[in-house]
Amino acid sequence: MTILITGASGFVGAAVLRALIEAGHDVRAMVRPQSDRRNLEGLNVEIVIGDLRDADSLKAAVAGCEALFHVAADYRLWAPNPQEIIDSNVTGTRNIMEAALNAGVSRIVYTSSVATLGLNADGSPSDEATPVSLDDMIGAYKRSKFLAEEVVREMVAEKGLAAVIVNPAAPIGPRDIRPTPTGRMIVQAAAGKMPAFVDTGLNIVHVDDVARGHLLAFERGEIGERYVLGAENATLREILGEIAQITGRRPPTVNLPHNLVLPIAYIAEAFARLTGGPEPMVTVDGLKLSRKHMFFSIDKARAKLGYAPRPATEALVDAIEWFKANDYL
Questions:
Q1: Which helix (H) or strand (E) holds 147?
Q2: CB burial readout 65-93, b (16+ within 10 A) else e
Q3: What is each CA distance from 320 to 1, 131, 226, in whole angstroms?
Q4: Whole-number Å distance between alpha carbons of 143 and 82
Q5: Is pLDDT at 259 greater than 90 in this prediction?
Q6: Phi, psi of 279 (to 5 degrees)
Q7: N or C: which end of the chain has fewer CB within 10 A?
Q8: Three-state secondary structure readout of 81-141
Q9: From start to end of the chain, where are the E strands?
Q10: How far apart are CA 211 and CA 18, in angstroms?
């Protein structure tokens, strides 16, 4: 079976790509002309050039493919022009799904995010059925992923799109070349550059388990359904403590109030916008998101897909070892 995967050079995409190859599939990897291709080196994969915002380029990319894994996304919590995130994640998703429909693709896995899910007011783990609306989405990234998932669900219902949706939590592990916002936090903490923290929580998961979850959704998932792919819920303080233990450093002990950090986030964004620099380490939307513990249940994926992720500690160890080996630390 020939499978097209978008975002194949990225963090999650590269992990899914490897899992597909190991499963014996013929894989076609779509990348943009400017994509960093280090994650594709040495792999037996056909590479095609395409851009989600260019509908014509997608026709050739998907031609002859029987399945599609749409993993690509603009994963930034801040951008000088937030419309770029919307265009890539919403319009781009519509474009690739339309191309897949027209090409007769018979099976699709769409990579959404837990960012689209509702959160329980009491901080208990939420799941795929927790009520949520667009008004609950903070920032361009969350809004774009929510709207993109709505595009897929509508096309399933109205056009017969054969798509299964997966919602990864906060993946960590090897090959985070960018790195992602979560990866940058791990690098800073492992380097001893995070002396303080805010009260928040995440569900962290090994990126290779997320990739395995994609294959399970492909093989066993129900069309139109979504499945959380996470592992363990932990507070940021607990995560930083675990990183300190792995690296032999002292864990941070200063808990900063969110309101104290917010002015710093505004200043950091203004400086990045003025200088044309990269995404700030602290962003306004990221700080607003951190006011809630983003804890999620993986019970549905366990029961319906047979999903069984490894302990989060192993993911942290693998991530830190990879960052060390590749000179991020």
A1: helix 139-159
A2: bebbbbbbbbbbbbbeebeebbebbbbbb
A3: 35, 36, 30
A4: 11
A5: no
A6: -55, 130
A7: N
A8: CCHHHHHHHHHHHHHHHHHHHHCCCCEEEEECCHHHCCCCCCCCCECCCCCCCHHHCCHHH
A9: 2-6, 26-31, 46-49, 67-70, 107-111, 163-168, 170-172, 196-197, 201-206, 226-229, 232-235, 254-255
A10: 8
Assess contact for 164 and 110: CB atoms under 8 A: yes
Helix 181-190 / helix 312-325 crossing angle, nearest 10 deg: 80
pLDDT digits (tens, 9 = 90+) for 40-99: 999 999 999 999 999 999 999 999 999 999 999 999 888 888 999 999 999 999 999 999
Residue with token string 């897909």: 305
- Token pair of 48, please? 């095609």
CB 30 within 8 A of CB 61: yes
Phi and psi (nearest 5°) for 81? -120, 95
Six-digit token pair at 307?
């999903």
pTM beyond 0.85: the answer is yes
Domain ranges of the chain: 2-176+203-234+294-311
Pick the CATH number of 2-176+203-234+294-311 from 3.40.50.920, 3.30.429.10, 3.40.50.720, 2.30.30.40: 3.40.50.720
Contacts 24+ apart (CB under 8 A), 128-132: 128/167, 128/225, 128/226, 128/227, 128/228, 128/300
